[in-house]
Amino acid sequence: MNEVCAKRAIILECIIFLLLTSCAPLKPLSPNGAAKSTTTSYTTATSQPQTSAKNQPSSSSSPAKSQNSTQTITGIAEWDIVLVPWLDTPYLYGGTTKNGTDCSGFVSGVFAEKENLYIPRTTKEEFKQGTAVEKSKLTIGDLVFFGERGVVSHVGLYVGDGKMIHASTNRGVTVTPLSDSYWVPRYMGARRYF
């Protein structure tokens, strides 16, 4: 009986480990747990930086979602029409919709919506597929992966200008520079799917 219980416990631990490493947060976005604003959004009308939605007064609807028609992320309409509505979507482990998503659910949802391309649902599997791309040759739409000790645990979508859009555990879907001091040492590579 004890042997059966021990085997069940090992199986349960393996399942929990796999779930946690599929898109598990490494740590809070900033080392001290404080949310630092690194998001810059632009309008097509002026192409000037706006105040991040995080710094604007709250209202009944998210400021970023109410300004979707004027915001751009990549400057390419085909991408922005898909990406902008995802901004400020709350982080939800295992989530795949604009009501709540995790990092791998976000990128797989974007690819399904924009390219009608169904990529794997977990970060680990997303990293295994696609074509490897050098960091210096990233193009809009490439997936960028992060982790620690050789374990991939986070994914974002490259949006140009040295930035990625991703589902942050403490800020939801947001745009962050790849040069952010938290992400630089955790960069593990990139993959291209089309």
Order of helices and strands: HEEHEHEEHHEEEEEE
Q: N- to C-terminal separation?
A: 52 Å
Question: What would you call the shape?
Answer: globular
The total count of helices amounts to 5
Question: What is the CATH class designation?
Answer: Alpha Beta
Strand segment tally: 11
The unreliable regions are 16-22, 24-68
The fraction of residues assigned to DSSP E strands is: 15-25%
Can you describe what's shown?
The structure is a single chain. The protein is of the alpha+beta class and 194 residues long. It has a single domain, classed as endopeptidase fold (from Nostoc punctiforme). The chain has five helices and eleven strands, in the order αββαβαββααββββββ. It has a six-stranded antiparallel sheet. Strand 1 (41-43) and strand 2 form a beta hairpin. The protein starts with a helix and ends with a strand.
Characteristics:
endopeptidase fold (from Nostoc punctiforme); 27% helix; six-stranded antiparallel β-sheet; three-stranded antiparallel β-sheet; 194 residues; alpha+beta
Could you outline the blueprint of secondary structure elements for this entry?
Elements: H1 2-23, E1 41-43, E2 49-50, H2 63-66, E3 71-72, H3 77-83, E4 96-97, E5 100-101, H4 103-115, H5 123-128, E6 131-133, E7 143-148, E8 151-160, E9 163-168, E10 172-177, E11 187-192
Antiparallel strand pairs: 1-2, 1-3, 4-5, 6-11, 7-8, 7-11, 8-9, 9-10
